[in-house]
Design goal:
Elements (H helix, E strand, L loop, with lengths): L3 E6 L3 H12 L4 E4 L7 H5 L3 E3 L4 H5 L6 H11 L6 H20 L4 E5 L9 E4 L2 H15 L3 E3 L4 E7 L2 E7 L2 E10 L8 H7 L1 H4 L6 E2 L10 H8 L4 E2 L5 E5 L16 E3 L13 H9 L6 E6 H5 L22 H10 L3 E3 L2 H8 L3 H17 L20 E13 L3 E2 L6 E3 L5 E7 L17 H20 L2 H6 L1
Parallel strand pairs: 1-2, 1-9, 2-6, 9-19, 10-16
Antiparallel strand pairs: 3-5, 4-5, 7-8, 8-9, 11-17, 12-16, 13-14, 14-16, 15-16, 18-19
The structure holds flavin-adenine dinucleotide (FAD).
The site of flavin-adenine dinucleotide (FAD) has 41 residues, from helix 1, helix 2 and helix 15.
Length: about 475
């Protein structure tokens, strides 16, 4: 006998969405959340939802469709990601946005949040907090049984089938279990194992999940314990960070710096979207770069913070503030020198190459055209007025962990041999086969949680005959 039709582990965006859809078709649902509140990373997020063919896009006169979103994500990933999963994401993303609208969320802006040509980043007014609140209120309104402050410790398995969970000294049984425990950003051990390109930075590593203390990779641990496949190794999103203000997500570097690797070469437009900049920095020798600027850029460029507010959330970074920079110059954390040769010595950057790079960069800055990397920026400062400064930049902020459980296109968790583990479903950031090698754009995390959360709720219910029961 089961205590519930479906038990859902983790009450973030995916978990609450799964609960609502399983409940909608008539399942009895228990939603378990380790934290004292529902919401997880979803409620902390910037609330951008990546979607195509939506009513919001149409209202903004943006022509788009799921096929174009599918093509973009598959091409960006050189088809090294799952077409069945990406097709579902693309085809169901508009419905996810409509559902949020039906729950009271509003979208004022749709932005290009990746490196695509079409604006697909739907910016929720009130950010993730508004999404979290809307879902939470709906879960409450539907009377879905929810237990907070309860961290599930393991899954119950009998004859190869998942039949429930163990938490707080109790076994609870269900017809199906859905794991929606989010990523593993707060677990150094998991980071070392499944995200070495972020973990390599050691102490400066910071995960955006910081405010949600139970984002510890429990879903992956459950999977490991019962032989589930973990896929998407080292494919998470890394974000560029100077670390000048601890525990702050920088996302975009200011356009008024010149970024070079230790060979003294530029390797990207400095204001490249965060969907690509972290990966590019990690690929440089020693996996780091230097942000160079002169006294004019510091005094004038740093006054404009508009680069840090691409999603119109009103956010304004403190990190690249003149006062913050001067403080770090005084302590020596930001290196300074009266000549570029001296600066090269202090940063161990190839001096001859740097001279060559700066000569070209300065000539381009005067005409306002970046002939090497095509940077388009309102403040494009040459390096000419001493003193010159250098701040180290690493891709040491984790924006999304991405590695996780392997699912089929019914969200059923699979084992190391590709076989479905009966009774077990998963959705959201705990799943490892959605994001691919490259983060396609701001909004992919929330979109994945909503789309696959819904599918998991529906499929888990169908797997125990509930769809049929309701239809009968
Ligand atoms: C600051 C920030 C900004 C972001 N901005 C965006 C954005 O704008 N757009 C975007 O697409 N993505 C963004 N992301 C990423 C995105 O929020 C996540 O990928 C997505 O919301 C994950 O949803 P989820 O439901 O899978 O997990 P979560 O929302 O993290 O929920 C997981 C829940 O499971 C609970 N839990 C964990 N283990 C257990 C356990 N053992 N027992 C019970 N409960 C457990 C956790 O406490 C948590 O509440 C951002 C993330 C952060 C933190």
């Amino acid at each position: 006998m089961s205590d519930y039709d479906i038990i859902i582990v983790g009450g973030g965006g995916a978990g609450m969405t799964a609960a609502l859809h399983a409940h909608r078709v008539g399942a009895t649902v228990l939603l378990l959340e380790a934290d004292r509140k529902l919401g997880g990373a979803t409620a902390l997020s910037d609330g951008v939802v990546y979607a195509a063919g939506t009513s919001v896009q149409r209202a903004h006169g943006i022509e788009d469709d799921p096929q174009a979103m599918f093509d973009y994500i598959m091409t960006l990933n050189a088809w090294q990601t799952r077409p069945d999963i990406i097709r579902l994401l693309a085809e169901r993303s508009a419905a996810a946005v409509d559902e949020l609208i039906a729950l009271g969320c509003t979208f004022e802006w749709v932005v290009k949040s990746g490196v695509d040509l079409v604006p697909r980043g739907h910016c929720t007014v009130g950010a993730g907090d508004a999404i979290g609140r809307a879902l939470r209120e709906e879960v409450g309104a539907k009377g879905i049984e929810t237990v907070l402050d309860t961290r599930v410790e393991r899954l119950l398995v009998e004859d190869g089938r998942v039949v429930g969970i163990h938490a707080s000294g109790m076994d609870l049984r269900a017809g199906a279990v859905i794991v929606t425990t989010g990523g593993f950003g707060n677990s150094p051990g998991m980071r070392a194992r499944y995200f070495p390109s972020a973990a390599q930075h050691g102490d400066p590593v910071y995960a955006v999940h910081n405010g949600a203390p139970f984002i510890l990779g429990d879903g992956l641990k459950f999977g490991e314990m019962i032989g589930a496949a973990i896929v998407g190794h080292d494919t998470g999103l890394v974000i560029a960070s100077s670390g000048l203000v601890p525990n702050v997500v920088e996302a975009y570097l200011p356009p008024w710096i010149m970024l070079v690797n230790v060979r003294g070469q530029r390797f990207m437009p400095e204001n490249a979207p965060y969907a690509v900049s972290g990966y590019l920095i990690n690929q440089q020798p020693e996996a780091r770069a230097w942000a160079l600027f002169d006294e004019s850029a510091l005094a004038v460029g740093s006054q404009d913070k508009s680069f840090s507010n691409p999603y119109h959330t009103g956010y304004s970074t403190q990190v690249w503030d003149e006062a913050v920079l001067r403080k770090h110059i005084a302590t020596g954390r930001i290196r300074s020198a009266d000549t570029l040769e001296e600066l090269a010595e202090r940063t161990n950057v190839d001096a001859l190459a740097l001279k060559e790079t700066v000569t070209r960069y300065n000539a381009d800055a005067i005409c306002g055209t970046d002939s090497d990397w095509g940077k388009v920026a309102p403040h494009y400062f040459p390096l000419e007025n001493a003193p010159f400064y250098a701040a180290e930049v690493r891709a040491s902020t984790i924006g999304q962990t991405s590695a996780g459980l392997d699912i089929d296109h019914h969200t059923r968790v699979r084992d190391l041999h590709g076989r479905v583990i009966p009774g077990l479903f998963a959705a959201g950031e705990t799943v490892g086969c959605v994001q691919g090698q490259r983060y396609s754009g701001g909004g992919m995390g929330v979109a994945s949680a909503l789309v696959f959360g819904r599918l998991a709720g529906e499929q888990a219910a169908a797997s125990i005959g509930i769809e049929a029961r309701v239809a009968a």
